[in-house]
Amino acid sequence: MLSLNLEILMEFIVYFQNLTIMNVDLTYYKEGLIRSDRIILGQAITLIESDLVEDRRLADELIENILPKTGSSIRVGVTGAPGAGKSTFIEVFGKYITSLGKKVAVLTIDPSSQKTRGSILGDKTRMEELSRDSLAFIRPTAAGSAAGGVSGSTREAILLCEVAGYEVIIVETVGVGQSQVGVRGMVDFFLLLMLAGAGDELQGIKKGIMEMVDGMAITKADGDNVAKANHARADYQNALHLFQTSESGWVPRVITTSAVAKTGIKETWDMIESFLRHSANNGFFERQRNQQQLSWFYSALDSTIRDKIIRQSKDALASIEKRILSHQISPARAAQHILENLTF
Ligand code: GDP
Question: Which of 9, 11, 162, 307 registers the highest number of CB atoms within 10 A of its CB?
């Protein structure tokens, strides 16, 4: 009896100790973010990217705590093929935003970091000048799935930056594919950077990507490239007019830019501002934010269920895989079977 009580007492002590540690940590992160401490912002992003169960618990608590203070930034997605000039453009564009007295955060999604734990972006110094600007914060983020869904951790990183007072958040994605679609679903304005090529300007451009963008910038419009860039601009603008008007009622615009000659930079910002005015006026801005919040929930739900199934049904999965491969059971029926035997 006595030993049982002692055990319960010990459990209580450990529980309260953990609770205290958790609160100290939570306060540390929360207060650090509120006073816009860049080191703590970086640490908080590392926390939300962590796969450790303990870190995840604290990350969830942190996110829940800061939620009421989020949502006030302008979220801009920037995409384009490697070599299109994204990092050079973002550096000059970011400096323009800070020259307006606004704080800018750049989150770069690096799809290679998930698989290799290395980074294709890490090997070159990107945005050196912007990273020295006291109004700017730059951070590569892994395209991991810790917070649910492909883009969970980037979505949470956006929220952390907002609490730390960043007014414009640029989410940069490299290359085409899943991360590009993911970014479209977490930003207000999606910008595609394109290099004017020789010959058929529209070759190689996927219609799907064109349908996702709110604006396009033809990069490196300087020197001998100016005429080619202007030509490409007209071609893309025509192509965009062929698409049906998007849900926002906004017709995407195409501009030419040069990070070297610093042209088209203010124009890019003006384009984003007019889109924001347009979408605030017709209610699309809020509708899109709400829709994004719910699709985050559903993708988190998907990955939570999947994780649970994989953790709980390891053996059953191994044996059902064999039955699927020997045509004893159909994949659809196998999925139902696994679900039916899951305990919640
Ligand atoms: P990213 O891979 O899309 O991030 O492209 P980068 O920003 O690294 O640029 C690729 C190359 O294009 C680099 O050698 C840059 O110096 C060059 N570049 C980028 N922007 C411009 C520009 O506005 N004009 C010219 N002429 N070259 C540029």
Answer: 162
Contact 288, 188 (CB under 8 A): yes
| Protein residue with its CA nearest to atom 6 in ligand 1 | 85
Query: Which residues, including other chains, have CB under 8 Å from residue 201's CB and lie 6 or more apart?
Result: 231, 232, 235, 236
For ligand 1, atom 9, the nearest C-alpha belongs to 85
Tell me the domains of the chain and their CATH numbers.
2-68 (no CATH), 70-282 (3.40.50.300), 288-340 (1.10.287)
88, 258, 262, best to mutate for ligand 1 pocket (most atoms within 8 Å of CB) = 88
Give the strand order in the sheet containing 215-219: 136-142, 104-110, 168-174, 74-80, 189-195, 215-219, 253-256
Rounded Cα gap, residues 237 and 171, in angstroms: 24
The 8 Å CB, 24+ separation contacts for 136-139 are: 136/94, 136/98, 136/103, 136/104, 136/105, 136/106, 137/38, 137/41, 137/103, 137/104, 137/105, 137/106, 137/161, 137/164, 137/166, 138/105, 138/106, 138/108, 139/42, 139/45, 139/105, 139/106, 139/107, 139/108
Q: Write out pLDDT tens, residues 189-209.
A: 999 998 887 444 454 556 677
- Token couple for 180: 């590009």
Query: pLDDT tens digits, residue range 236-257?
Result: 898 888 776 778 899 999 999 9
Residue of 293, 232, 295 lying closest to 264 (CA atoms): 232
